[in-house]
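$ run holo --ligand "protoporphyrin IX containing FE" --emit tokens
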Amino acid sequence: MPQPVNAELGQLSELFMLLASIAYVVALIFFVLDLVKSSATIGTLEARLAGEKAAPVLAGVGGRGSGPTAESVPTRAETADDSMDYGRGPRRGTARVAVSLTVLAAVIHGAAVVTRGVAAHRVPWGNMYEFCTTGAFLVAAIFLITLTRKDLRFVGSFVVGLVVIMLCAATVGFPTPVARLIPALQSYWLIVHVSIAVASSALFTITFAMSVLQLLQTSREAKLMAGKPDRARFLRLVPSALSLENLSYRLNAVAFVGWTFTLMAGAIWAEQAWGRYWGWDTKEVWTFVIWTVYAGYLHARATRGWTGTRAAWLSIVGYLCIVFNFTIVNIYFSGLHSYSGV
Amino acid sequence: MKQDVTQDATGRDCAQGTKPDVVLPSLGFLGTLRWAWTQLTSMRTALFLLLLLAVAAVPGSLFPQRPANPAVVTQYIQDNPESGPVLDWFQLFDVYSSVWFSAIYLLLFISLIGCVVPRAAAHFRAVRSKPPRTPKRLSRLPVYGTLEVSAARARDAGLTPSSAAEQAAAVLRKRGYRVDVRDAGTDRPSVGAERGLAKEFGNLVFHTSLIGVLVSVAVGGLFGYNGQKVVVEGESFVNTLIGYDSFNPGSNFTDDQLDPYSIRLDSFDVRFDREQESHYGQPLDFTANITTQDGPGEDEEQQVLKVNAPLTIGGTNVYLVGNGYAPVVTVRDGEGNIASQGPVVSVPSDGLYTSLIVIKAPDAKPEQLGFVGFFLPTAFVDEQGVSFSRDPDPFNPQLNLNSYYGDLGLDDGTPENVYVLDTENLTELNSRNNDDGGIVLGVGQTYDLPEGKGSITFDGLKRYAALDIHHDPGELGALVFSTLALLGLSASLFIGRRRLWVRTGEHPDGRIMVEYALLARGEDHRLPAEGDAVAKLLADRWLVPSGTPEENSTQDAAASTAVGTGQSHHNAKDT
Ligand code: HEM
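-- output --
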């Protein structure tokens, strides 16, 4: 017999969740500050360069041909390193604070997720509140893990902003006290299916952010090429559209395999629960649609004339489908999956 | 640029051997066919069909679908007399079996076959052929580096350009490359090497497995069957056609496919959450205790059936998909005879098991009797005098019924829905709105109908289990093929297909020079790292001091900034 839930621990978890949200908001502020500040720094740097026009001085500024050298400023649109490695640009203290705060927030957030699970004596992904909070934690964790290898701080405000939104949606939109699982969810496939789904969605969240930046960067690059003034100066912190596209492709590939597995595990679970592995239930339809859109994205990357901007749009559409699936479909569409505990 | 070595860049467009921009056909029927085929199997068409399939799947989630919910569809058409039939004409209530949806996926799969077959043939050839020839100028490839072995060391080790090439080939072979040594014995021998053919193989497996999945689904649709049965405590189900409440045979189904096993529901246990304020009354456990028998005269076996844990018996899987209450009711007719007696299955409409119930007594004389209303497990009355249920457990079970008499319309042979009472041709006896009022019955109570039409007694309460019984011979195939697809996909996405060349030569002063270069097919961000790894292996082989020569490291650095990710080198090289 399963033990009763531990309500006090559940409340502790909610407190942690609140603290984590606050820490994320502060981190978000620092990320935005970093964008503003770095943009200003680069601005003065460029002004000085423009005044001096002296190449030898520049060598020390940007490092291996990736910084704002005199010839690269007008032609190449980006100043962040295209390989997205660390240690080539000027030091960004504010960004460091932002990352540290995100780490702190993620640790508290992790504690919140774990205590929730312990309180309920099960994995903490049995209803919308839990999908949202665990999902947000994964987004933050994956972002931080990627940060250890690549300098993705330029998407920090974007990613942490999304985490904050997810936490708000959870606490305001679907507040649910800890509880045991209804029989339909009592299956280890819940652990497999939902965890991979949430992890893949977290990855797709990051690539979504990168694809949006990619589109902005593309149009900015085109404008600069045409000799127009730079309107979106903060994008100088962002790598070139091409490097964004390449990295988001790699992440999307991983996420797509995850999503394929989600779909399969879901089918296996459906077979156990309802006797058929596929029945075009609303939720299944949307999982399929998302899968097909991202398969289209992968194809686009191999199709002449479809790489770059079009592929980025497909990645964005895919993510919008994920959001739609998670919100509108869960809440308003009826179907066999309507037990998300809204 | 680099056409000489990147010949296979065109191989990415699927239709092999076709020019990218197809000239309009001026060549009659066959030519048109060939043109159409080329179009259909082009990557662009595949992409278009894929996206179209995604869009086409959406309406199925917006409109009720017949296979899942025929009654809801009928209702929808009735409620929308204008748009309903139009939507129906466009098959929007049968999206996944509609002509247009089928057309899209069939075209997609034809395109897929047209794509996989030539690719498989090309891959077969590639596997059997030697690694591609060594480009003239290795330094133009995305990752390039050099090593040198000092004259003294070369002399000590007896190293010549040819033996260096042989040894490089051995090192590469050990690292999983297919290798081929060319121009051995000349002054500029070279090694061509290739690795990661499994990438393409994975891609082929993935696409082929998708066909396998589709075929498995079709097999299930042709030879499978499924049916539903509601079993009340104490009753049995026998797996024969008449045993089912509803039955959906596949297109090739025959009666003799059914194994006449039987399942008796001994008891049905339900547990609701009683601890938690916020989830009070939420279900925690459903357990059907059953006795099965593989056939008449076989041994009985006691088993437990739960949600998410189907029972396998007689080539079928049996699932617990629902449950509810079946009040036991006796109806007496105007002549005092029992017109119907036994448990009546009620349909829960919410989490508190407020259940709809319909009782029909076609044998009642002189007039047939019908009842429709609610069963409430724990009945309460609100301020407006309306009864409602406050708990899913039967703490105060109550029937709230209206009654009718007349012709129930069961005798003309049209299939009836036991859960619906068509009151159109009936005369109302009891109702909340007429003088006699509605019927309210607790367990053990009897109500005498007005005008001496008879009586109704609520004898007791039983639970029932709703079972789904499925037989799907395509299931295993679908599982196997989708697993293969997943493996193939991972191989295809994560294995890097790389070509590597090494060329050796000797300086007049006796130093042995080694150049190496790598090229990825498709995108490969790990290419520079692979270059470094191979350089290190070669350096170790020839005992080059670990601080590799200056020239080598600069070259490599240039390459690695340029080739941060597979594609960027094109641009970077040009700047
Ligand atoms: C049922 C429909 C299809 C689905 C779901 C699908 C899915 C995918 C996926 C997920 C990939 C990326 C993985 C990989 O690189 O191997 C891929 C790659 C590929 N697909 Fe498909 N595909 C379908 C139909 C087709 C068709 C009809 C063609 C031929 C016209 C095709 C040709 C290719 C090619 C050439 C690649 C390799 C792309 C590359 O080199 O990166 N696929 N497909």
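-- notes --
Residues 7-77+90-332 of chain A form one domain.
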